[in-house]
Amino acid sequence: xKKGLFSIVLTLLIAAMAIAGGAKEGSGKAEAPKTFQISIxxxxxxxxEDDICAKEFKKRIEEKSKGRVTVKLYGNxxxxxxxxxxxxxxxxxxxxxxxxxxxxxxxAPEYNIWSAYYIFRSGKEIMxxxxxxxxxxxxxxxxxxxxxxxxxxxxxxxxxxxxNRPIKTAADVKGLKxxxxxxxxxxxxxKALGAFPQAIALxxxxxxxxxxxxxxQENPLSFIYSLAFYxxxxxxxxxxxQRAFFTYVLSEKTFQRFDPELQKLFLEEGKSITRFxxxxxxxxxxxxxxxxxxxxxxxxxxxxxxxxxxxKDIPAKFSQKWVPNLYEDILKxxxxxx
Length: 338
Prior knowledge:
The protein is an alpha/beta fold. It is 49% helix and 17% strand. Helix 2 runs antiparallel to helix 11 (260-294).
């Protein structure tokens, strides 16, 4: 009797489990896909190129993920200086950033030739190198060294020197107190020109100029305008000393939290925002010059050759820090585009 009762109970239990399983399968309801909120840090103020492009990237990711990813933007160095953001990307406490060459200095220093002055003549040359085998090696090094994944790039306009006295030749730089990003090759370059370089966060630079802690700075025209340096600086000296780029980087910890569908989306949109960013930069350079002139800034034509002559030995001083023959390999790649 007991054996019979046990068999009946067991049969009913198995049937109930089968019914429940069938109901679950028959309902057609899958588990809701996981959602994410990610942070993007960048240095530009409202209206700067990286700000415009960050907003565009946010729009595209949120729309194409169908609400699975929401993006919170932190511009104007709200989350810290670039050197701090690199550490936060490695830890995963910041998900994504749009950064200058600081991320290369911190995460792939053996390839950080990008900060050297007067290497590239055009954005076309830069992209040829980044999209080629050298760029691939850089991506692999950054991922290995710091767990930071490159997903895209964005060209920047040439960097120019702003000041309250005109600078026409390299000799005019002597004694100038200048704010620069905290990178060794920047420091050595401006020291070689006779300046006194100082590291000040972009967010505090405006006040530092008002207080005359520094009397000059260098940035592309977009930053000179968006950060309102026309309020504290008189001249834009067209040194054009560096042609660089933004790098769109994603914490690998964040990337690995995504399922394959979202990983693919971020990689595709990284390429897409690169095209958007480069088109924007190409259109905006003349516009920013006019805006700055309208704000009262005077543009000074500079003897760039005098700067190149004064800085000609800088690459050799840093070549031992880079992978062997990096400078020569880049010049070879560039020569194919000229």
